[in-house]
Amino acid sequence: MGNLVTIWAEWLRPSAGLVTVQWSLLLAVATIAGYLVQRYIGLPKVVGYSLVGGLAGFAGFTGAVWPLSGTGLFVLELAIAVVLFEAGGRIPLRWFRHNPMVLAQSIAESTLTYVAVNLGLQWLGMPAAVAHPLALVAVAASPAVLMRVAMDVRASGPVTDRAMVLATLSTLYALSLGTVQAELEQRQQLHLLDSLQPVALLVGLSIIVGAALAFSLRLALKVMSPASENTSILLLALIAAATGIASHLGGSAPIAALLGGMLLKQFSPRPWAWPRQMGTAASLLTMMMFVLVSVVAAQVDWTMQVAGLVLALVALRGLAKVIGVALGNIGSGASWRQALWVGCAMSPMSSIALLIASQFALMQGSTGRMIAQTALPAILLMELLGAVIATVALHRAGEASQPWLPQWRGRDNTAALPSEGEERDA
Amino acid sequence: MTLEPFTPSRALSLGVELELQLVNTHDYDLAPYAEDMLRMLEKQPLPGSVVPEMTSSMIEISTGICQSAAEVLGELSTIRDAMVRVADKLNIAVVGGGTHPFQQWHERRIYDKPRFKELSERYGYLSKQFTIFGQHVHIGCPDANAALLMLHRMSRYIPHFIALSASSPYVQGQDTQFDSARLNSVFAFPLSGRAPFALDWGDFEIFYGKMTRTGVVKSMKDFYWDIRPKPEYGTIEIRVFDTPLTVERAAALAGYVQSLAAWFLMDQPFMPEEDDYLVYTTNRFQACRFGLDATYVDPGTGQHMPLRDHILLTMHQIQRHAEAQGAANALHLLRDSVSSGENDARWLRNRQRKEQLLAEVTRQAAGRFRSATGPR
User: What is the pLDDT of residues B289-345, one digit of tens each?
Assistant: First the structure.
């Protein structure tokens, strides 16, 4: 027996480590939760992912630390980049020429969100240095959550498309301003001339990396079919490379990916026919992102005082988004009813908000802690609640093909059930 | 339920309906934007009308009562231009063609209108599979008996209409090997096919009365015949055309119908018979399957010949009437297409051969619909 143990001990090899095992098991549980939540409650899978991540975070799961850095940060940035590249590709710039009111609508809702949250939080006694970054975090709606919700309920139509575009644009504003602002705060360069250089550097580098990504893909698409699996893999590989390069050079990987998608659509108007969400690999990546976000967001200390501020932030943000979308709706081609549902569909907050908050947390010391204390619970709440609100909005707008029925309740109604194999991620 | 009386109309007047596809500009799949399109077009003064169709990614445009193919083209172009402007504003595209090449029927949503909901209840999945796009041509008839005579004469030319308009080779992402696969979807409906042979309106009323007594039919709308009388308009309605890829070709097809009708009315070239229908289904199938390369069996003589030759022969016979109706250009356009063996189905296949991507073919078809360069 002792001999056997010795032999076994000799066989043992260094493994990927306990963290890898923990993460693998956490993702496995999240996957099951996502499936069950969709099948038995009719809610999008992202709710299940976030619930499991949140519970793990509350339970003290140590697989991810705040503020994000290293591999965790890279995974988050990569997943965001993949989503934003696809979201950017849904924004043809020529649309704004034909319908400038969509751009006006986007600016109106983002500006109003920023102003409402900033002033509202200051009125509640929060210092301006904290309220201002939180307002920037609140501007970003999550195209990632919205995309997943739309897939799960199989939604398509004017509300889905408009909400997607406005969420992507709000992300672009929040990312650009948030990243630059965090950079400036860190350098404490508050004069205009001093700030121009880092802004130009950040935006310029992101544009260069985004353009290089778009150009490489355009070249590839000249010989490769967009419907090919290899093209999807190539795309993922190039986005991963661009993410690494952009961060390394001091640019923003998500901005680079978003601009890359927009530029590719602009210069190559051919249809984007690669599998939605680019297959299982990309789906796994985005699922990891949702779990990671909720694990991290749940780590903050929750207090009653913070709870009030969080609820105020969430309420002000939601109201501002709906009113902002409505204000910019005149002449934009959507009905008032659609504008209401677009505003509601933009309620999810997730990875991008976390990334912006992470940048402030890294760079501002004690103020950073105060930002995180309010931002993280708000992000976790709106990853969960936002996904539910977006689901309701898409159903109420009449754009969901999947009936919102828990399957166990729909047993008698065969027409309401998806047939064998109909449940599709892509 | 009795059949409403036939309202006489001006002989050879024309009306055209076109069912069109609304697609997104991302992956060029069908997009449920009919309601938005209608809402935005409502504010614009347009000839004819724009109405919803069975599923929410379809829209139907129609001309008013026109006298010539040129007038049809004028009205269709005006509506087309307005639609393209609205589509640009909504970030979608409008496309012709009898089918969307790769849409999945089960993803379609029935347009929220009582009649469509009722049809959906009655026909189940067939109603979603009815996401197909056709052109209907109405031709005015002076009285009810003239309409029935016109209808059964026109039946001999159904293969011509199918081959000339065929633009639905792809269904659910596959080449069906048919030039017009759209009509196979129509055939699934129980009341499709040919109208009963009756040359007297009284006989037709008796048939209609029997059908309504069975409870199978509630109105003329329930008949999905290839050609059906439309008593309230005083027309017969030809329904076998696939929607062409351009409004120019749609107007040319209307001009061809009008010239044929003028020939029937002026020259009374033949009397239709029940036996004409012995070869009807075969001829129809040949045209759907092979388009302009089909074989045509002449119902009168039983002679077999290339459909292309018979179309050219007909065009020669009606040339004089086409000129009188102002449809000479329309006929010229179609004749060129027949001579070169090019219809829209061929164009779509050629594009797909080059691009190897149906979504890109749809994008190019959308570009073709919006341009005023005319059919190729």
Answer: 999 999 999 998 999 999 999 999 999 999 999 999 999 999 999 999 999 999 999
CB pairs under 8 A between A and B: 70
Tokens (6 digits) for A230: 């290899």
User: What gap in Å lies between CA A98 and CA A110, rounded to an integer?
Assistant: 21
CB crowding A348-385: b at 16 or more within 10 Å, else e: bbbbbbbbbbbbbbbbbeebbebbbbbbbbbbbbbbbb
Q: State which amino acid sits at residue A276.
A: R
Please indicate if any CB of chain A lies within 8 Å of the CB of B363. yes
The C-alpha atoms of residue B149 and residue B199 are separated, in whole angstroms, by 6
With an 8 Å Cβ cutoff, are A99 and B31 in contact?
A: no
ipTM more than 0.90?
Answer: no
| Six-digit token string for A373 | 């204390």
Distance of residue A411 Cα from the nearest chain B Cα, in angstroms: 19
A20, A134, A25, A16: which is closest to A72 by C-alpha? A20
- Chain B partners of A89 at a C-beta cutoff of 8 Å? 26
Q: Out of B86, B91, B362, name the one closest to residue A95 (CB).
A: B91
Compute the nearest-CA separation of B119 from chain A (Å): 16
Q: How many other C-beta atoms lie within 10 A of the C-beta of residue A316?
A: 23
Q: Is B202 exposed, middle or buried (0-12, 13-18, 19+ CB in 10 A)?
A: exposed
pLDDT digits 0-9 by tens, B70-123:
999 999 999 999 999 999 999 999 999 999 999 877 777 777 777 777 777 777
Three-state SS sequence of chain B: CCCCCCCCCCCCCEEEEEEEEEEECCCCCECCCHHHHHHHHHCCCCCCEEEECCECCEEEEECCCECCHHHHHHHHHHHHHHHHHHHHHHCEEEECCCCCCCCCHHHCCECCCHHHHHHHHHHCHHHHHCCCCEEEEEEECCCHHHHHHHHHHHHHHHHHHHHHHCCECEECCEECCCCECHHHHHHCCCCEECCCCCCCHHHHHHHHHHHHHHCCCCCHHHCEECEEEECCCCEEEEEEEECCCCHHHHHHHHHHHHHHHHHHHHHCCCCCCHHHHHCHHHHHHHHHHHHHHCEEECCCCCCEEEHHHHHHHHHHHHHHHHHHHCCHHHHHHHHHHHHHCCCHHHHHHHHHHHHCCHHHHHHHHHHHHHCCCCCC
- What is the DSSP secondary structure assignment for residue A354, as one 8-state letter? H
